[in-house]
Specification:
Blueprint: H1 17-29, E1 41-42, E2 48-52, H2 60-63, H3 74-82, E3 86-87, E4 99-100, E5 103-107, H4 120-135, E6 142-146, H5 148-157, E7 172-177, E8 180-187, H6 192-197, H7 202-215
Parallel strand pairs: 2-5, 2-6, 6-8
Antiparallel strand pairs: 1-5, 3-4, 7-8
Helix pairs in contact: 3-7, 4-5
The protein binds iron/sulfur cluster (SF4).
Iron/sulfur cluster (SF4) binds next to helix 1 and helix 4.
């Protein structure tokens, strides 16, 4: 039977047995948490789509909103605010009143994977949701892919061969999307590991959003 993908995964999505088992184990340990596929956050008329890797166990998996609940969103939401893509103050909780403007955040893999590492098969299975997400954004012009897994999954979602657009921080590619051309911009993931080690600095991340704003003037 073919699975009927939609832009957002059903909360009981059964496709990845390992991740379903991890969701269920987390639900026993932390029954008040979300513990389900995390919905994209933002507006359906967004021109900018930010594509992360997967929910963090005590972050989006806890709160149900991407990059929310732990440190993972600190740099991302501060940068979105600085560049005019949000209104309100991010406060690590989904009821902080934050609103995205002209932007949406999603993940290549919608369920939390153990040790933040989805398998290739899990990324493949979840890609159908990303394909539908892209189709459902008629104004989409720019995507920021956070890390190589996000980058690779996005290329595959658009039917682009990986060697045609290799991952590189700051690289920019114009690709054919379902609703017209889209510019893909690569960034190292804004994870705590990358920011703590200096692999990704605030200045480097803001330079990515300089690129975004040059393509999407306010
Ligand atoms: S990762 Fe994606 S495909 Fe796999 S169970 Fe979760 S929502 Fe479904």
């Amino acid at each position: 039977m073919t699975f009927a993908y939609t832009p957002e995964a059903p909360l009981d999505c059964p496709l990845c047995p390992r991740l379903v088992a991890y969701r269920q184990a987390n639900a026993i340990e932390e029954p008040s948490w979300h513990n389900a596929p995390v919905r994209s956050f933002g507006s359906d008329d967004a021109r900018l789509l930010i594509i992360g890797l997967a929910p963090g166990r005590g972050g989006a998996n806890k709160t149900g909103r991407p990059f929310t609940g732990d440190w993972a969103g600190d740099l991302l939401y501060a940068t979105l605010d600085k560049y005019g893509f949000s209104r309100g103050i991010y406060d690590q909780r989904p009821d902080d009143g934050l609103v995205l403007i002209d932007a949406m955040i999603t993940n290549a893999v919608r369920c939390v994977p153990p040790e933040n590492k989805p398998t290739g098969e899990e990324a493949n299975l979840c890609r159908g949701f990303l394909v539908k997400r892209l189709q459902a954004l008629p104004q989409l012009k720019v995507m920021v892919c956070l890390g190589k897994i996000s980058h690779d999954n996005t290329l595959k979602a658009l039917g682009v061969r990986l060697k045609e657009a290799p991952f590189k921080h700051g690289a920019q590619y114009t690709l054919e999307g379902p609703n017209g051309p889209i510019t893909l911009i690569d960034s190292y993931h804004c994870s705590r590991y990358n920011t703590n080690t200096g692999r990704l600095t605030t200045a480097m991340f803001e330079a990515i959003f300089d690129q975004v704003r040059s393509l999407l003037p306010q």
